Structure formats: C-alpha cells, structure tokens
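Board notes (copied after class):
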Amino acid sequence: METLVFQLHAPLSSWGEAAVGEYRPSAESPSQSAIHGLLGAALGVDRADDAAQAGLRTGYRLAVGVLSQGRLLRDYHTAQVPGRADLKKRPHATRRDELSLPKTDLNTILSGRDYRQDAAALVAVQRISNAPYSLAQLAGALKMPRFVLYLGRKSCPLAAPLHPCVLDAETIWAAFMDYRQQLADLQQQQLPKYTEPHDLSVHKIAWGDDFGADDLSVVGVKRDLSITRKDQVITRQGWQFADRSEHIALLVKG
C-alpha cells in the first residue's frame, strides 16, 4: 500500500501528555496530535480552521517507528498566568490572548517541563477515504513547509531534514525497512569517511485502532501491549483531547 514515511530527529523534543498542576510531562514517542499538527503546519493550515484540522485527523492513519526514545531532561520554568477569575471572563484561545492583561494582573507560577534529548523516530502516513491531500502533496509540504516546524514545542527545532518519501510497501514494517535502507544509503554517500553513522534500528512500532490491533497483514509485526493515550484532538482552539488506544510492538534492535 502507498505509504508516506518521514523522519523526526531533534536535540530536544516534547510529546505532551495530560498535565496536572504545573508539571508538563512528555511521552517517550510522538503523539498523534503532534504529528497532525506538524502536517497542518507544513500545509499552512490555520489552527483555528476546525474543518481543515478535522480533515487531517479523519483522512489519514498514522504509525510511529521509534529509533531512539532519547534521554529524559526535566527543566525548571517560571511562567506568567492570569488569575482564574480573569480567565473565566474572556476567551483565551492562544497564549497571547491569555496574557493580554495589564502586567499587574498577571501572576507567576513555577513549572516543571519534560523533554526528550536526542530522540529519533519514523512516521508512516496512509490515506483513508476522503483525505483532503494526496501523500505526494503532504511530502511536498514537508519539504517546503508554510509554517515553522518543531517537535512538540517551539524550543524544539529539527536537527535533520524530514526527508519524506512515498513508498509502495505491503506493511508498515516493510515501509520502515525500505525507508531505513534509503537513509543508510544516504549516510554512506554523504557523511565524511570516518564519521560514525546514526543508528537506524527500529526498536518499537506504535499504531492506532484504525490499523487493527492484531492485523499482521497491515502492520507486519505482532502487538505486545496496548495503552491509552490522551492525544486525539477534539478541537485545537480549546486544546481539548480525547483518549485513544495505541498498540505497541517491542522489537529487538539490529
């Protein structure tokens, strides 16, 4: 099946999970909402355009191949926020809206935020019926994005080109292996002779219910466990997310 595959690699990345209080955790692998947001940014889809955002969510199914989950970095922040009474009085769809008060009405809170250091992953995208863009159009947008791309937070710029490729593969696993070979060939051609190449071993694959939990003919690997992630966007404007099931295959590196 036709599959778009691209890579995500950055010095720092952060895949937000449900936040409690002032602590902002990060998952070990890219979230569904972050990937949809990345595609939307590349295409130039406005965050407030609910119809276009919904088209991205319902038109494609996603799988992630983890090359490295990186190392955890916990950062200490101070942040300005308005009081709860002020927030209730007016809409605040963006951070700018939230802070559009006199400085005397803003409070300072302490915040801990998690990042992943030197994490790397592959993303596979397949079209479902009524998808608004072809995979070739998505690949073109990832090569020449309309908006700046980052991995989870604006402080997490990319370390390498996304290198999107549209492949014809029977399963997600086969698509990742074909893409991995392409990257290995590029490394051999472009890296200096004595430079150590990046490890391109896929040691975990994660996918959603839209691929089927145990359909080997689609994913190509056997599920080892399933978890629940709150990363399915309901609306970008209100930052509301729903739970979804994620199925994971744990693979031996090599």
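Comment from the instructor: The longest helix spans residues 172-190. The radius of gyration is 19 Å.
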